[in-house]
Amino acid sequence: MSQDPHDRSGLPSRRNFLVSSSVVAATALAGCSGNGDDGDAGDGDTTSGDGGTTSADELSGTIRISGSSTVYPVQVAATEEFRADVSDDVEFPISRDGSTGGFEKFFLKGDSDINGSSRPILEEEVERARDQGFEPIEFQVAGDALTAAVNNDNDWAECITIEELSRIWSPDAENELWSDIRSEWPDEPFDLYGAATTSGTFDYWTREVVGELRVIRDDFEGTEEDDLIARGISDNQYAHGYLPYAYYDNNPGSIKALEIDGGEGCTEPSLTAASDGTYPLARPIFIYVNSNRLQEKEELQEFLRYYIELTGNQQIIAEEIGYVPMSDQEIQDNLNKLEETIE
Amino acid sequence: MATVDRLTFTNGLSKLKGAAFRLVCLGATAVGVLALAALLLTVTWGALGFDAAHPVWILVVLTATGLSTGGVVTYARRDETVKLAAISSTAALIGGAVLGVFAVVFQLIVTPSVWAAYAGGALLPALVTALVIPNRRYRLPATAAVLVGGGVVATVALDTLTELAGAADPWLLYLLTIVVPLAVLVWTRVEPTAGRRRAGLLAGGLVLAGVAVPLLTPAPDPLTPGLVLVFGLALFSPLGVLAWRRFRNGQSNVGLAAPLVIVGGAVVGVVIANATGFAAADPWLDWQFLTSPHSRLPEDAGLYPAVVGSFFIMMVMAAFAFPVSVGAAIYLEEYAPSTGWRGRIVQLIQVNIANLAGVPSVVYGLLGLAIIARGVSLGPFALWPGTGTGVVTTAAFTLGLLIMPITIISAQEAIRAVPDAHRRASYAMGASDWHTLRNVVLPEALPGILTGTILSLGRAIGETAPLIMIGAATTVYSPPTSLNDSVSAMPMQIYAWAGEFIADFRTGVLSAGVLTLLLAMLAINAVAILVRNRYERNQ
Amino acid sequence: MSTPEETARADQPADATDITSRKAGEIQLDTAVRYVFAACGVLTVLVTAGIIYVLIDGAQVFFASDIVDVQGFLTGNTWKPTSKTGDGTYKFGILPLVSGTLIIVVTSAVIALPTGLGAAIYLSEYASPRTRAIFKPTLEILAGVPTIVYGFFALFFITPFLDNFFQIRTFNALSAGIVVGIMIIPMVSSISEDAISAVPNSLREAAYGLGSTKFETTTRVVVPSALSGIISSYVLALSRAIGETMAVTVAAGQSAKMPFYPNVEQNLLQSIETITAAMINVASADIGGNTPAYDSMFALGLALFGMTFVMNLVAEYIAGRYREEY
Q: Which ipTM score applies to this complex?
């Protein structure tokens, strides 16, 4: 709390930074649409010509966003900045439903334009979207280092292998005590916390750690709220759980992160380790866009151009939220993909 | 001797037992009160950012506030009229604040130009008619005729009128359509008793204050000067009416300043405390919080669209649930047969209502999702088209059905409380059922009915589970302005804050949101208690 | 102070003469008005019908799938609608949820029933009108506090407090049960108080006349006479506790388990999941999906509706009996 005044006094400069970065983004955007024209001849021009004039001031409409609570901070950042920089006549109702929840509840029914997901879309979900007559277009917006955490008073575990994690979390395992995993660890039962069974984080963890999608032991505490996972872990010396790195990053000291050994030695979770691929539990997080809406709605096109540029913003994505920003090359690829879909 | 001794002994023992029992019962009552106090204290502490403050700072502010409150209380204790004035002015301000929020939300929904079109086309002409026609007999019909006629004209010419009105600043529109007529009204009421000078001062002062609003308010987005004007008028008008009544009855108005003195004490306390140089509280619940939407940064986050959303839902809900509930209550109390097979059906309806009052809110959420949001069709016929998930209409209808049984039951109690003698007197004068109802029963039962309705608003404003079920959004950036807009409500946004990465959201911002929600609920309940007390005093 | 009322009354004679002159034309209006009001009453029946239809329709889809039948649903002891158990299947057994709900009901009953009755006795028998005027609305406010606020209160205030005394989980049944108990105190106290106040004064006077003390009069005459009213308030309050949603969703956890035995204290210290919380969980997962998990929400709703329906009927029946006594 005592740092607050400092934070607030820093605010105007942060705003200035954002404005200037958005100017950069706008220039980049202009350059990019120029590229599109060069590459794909007149097609793009005719479609945008049909849509009328493209002046940022005239943009309005509603873009419905649903999905993962892991992606939610990025969604909020993108929409908030878009409204500040481009047009505040565009309204964004956002709900946090979990990746699966968002797909089921809104996106696959055609009720939302964008769905955030902390796991890649399933084949079955793509098919249901096609039944509805649209294609879900995938864009990666950030990376995360899923963090395995223990209590601060846990003085035995420092580094853990994926195989050991799997033994902790598998349903058929007979393991109840820490000593079942490594004999030198204490004879105390685990107390396990993790993402709710409706979230993409859960899907990722079961697939990567347990080895089979949505299979997990019965007696863990599943919740949609990462804060509650952290509270659970910090309340019991023998607790263990997994949560997004962003949460750990924003609440240093409350819990202890374990190093992960994916077969090539122990690696501490960090944004660098996640982006260079040395951290084994690094995962991409995505948004999926309804292709029909993308072609119909000019405000959605503008928003996504802005959004994709913003995913490279070190200040917002890394420092404020705690995710791995996208590289320039990835952004360029995403922009190209976007322009292709719009045509 | 021995018997006497035993008697006094058992007497003493039973006295002790009695006293102990009384204490236990008092303790039981206190448990509830203490729980409420603990709840309010923790939430207020977090919302006002007291944990950032130095103890000395807190001590100074609390002492100053305590002193001013204590001063007001001791002064008011000595004089019954001052006490009454102090209580009523506080109540009037609370009521005014609730009214103000509703008025602002109403204006956000109808937009200033539409309001101006109807105000200029129908309301003002009707007001003028009412003031001009001296004969009581013709006044009402003539006013009604002008109102309806003007309404039709305004609707027909709506596009032209709104275009015309749209050219002016909303603030100017409100000045012309509300402040100036209000000043005229004040003049006509005040002038006969208080004389021209005073009436002129009052009316002129009112207009001047209205003119000064945009100069005085920095008008932070999204609260334009126009909305500040509307809120200010609603906030102070109950107090104004109160002051005027007391003045006319020759009562002293000193006590009316009580809320001002208490708040003033707190402000002085803050100024002194800041001067001490100790760390000050860093309130999360501030003007910025109330006027901003959610943000990813805790210090920029706010509750504005959710507050508007909540009150918008309340208004639509009340407009639907209130007439239906009162109608059902009237039928059950005044018309329903009590014998025969029809009587048995009525009895069944009555049991059914009692049951509905106990159905968990989450089940109403399922009803709202499956029927209200998604629609019902019987074969090829669409009985109900379905209003869609997460929009204002769906939320309002779902919550409306939820509060209906409670409202019906309390309205029934109010109607039942009207003495039968009054009804008989009315019938004896040859009045029909409907006229007895309209002129005798309803006017007497109205305060009770209103109390019940307002209390159910207080319940609906905090409902979360049904909103989750019908898929209400957690975050929106601008408040909903039409019935088909996606809506978020206060509890939805608060629920979302609990899951943010950044700790400040889960402590400070969350507390500020909870306190806002609690204050809204308390203010609504206070209005209900106010209505009830007034009513009980008049009985 | 009461000018509008005065003017209204002053207006009435004038209106009344109006009525007599127009009376003949009013009969049709009377009938029309009666039908409109009756329709409002019928609407409440439609709401019940709608609820039952929605629940049964959804539940029937759920049971029609070959994943679970009614018996399996009612007797199954594992609730895993969205994650697979060891054998690779989803499990829909309601018993762990019923257990969670009952734990909350029992805990809240322990808090609210004695406290509410004590408060009712104090307010009706001992309190001065002045004290009563302060305490009664305050207690009623307790019932108006949004339940989600109670959930946060339990999670951020009561659980850390209890943590000083017990080895307690972050999510636990105890603190959720305590806040639900606090929430239903006013329900017990206000209905019980009505019942106690309805005991005729003659009974009290007769008891005093026989030499009883106030304590004896209250505990042996007044409270027993009001017993049916008090019991009915208990049943209603517990029915509310069963249906309570947000406080338990936030504070009691989301992990359905069968009760612990013989370590019964673990039932309070561990996390649980109630029927309502399970519905919210499914709702925030699959509100529109055609999955069994989504449909299970309606089966849960039906079970919940059935439980509260029976309890409300019982309360109504008991209260009806007591009304006839005087």
A: 0.86
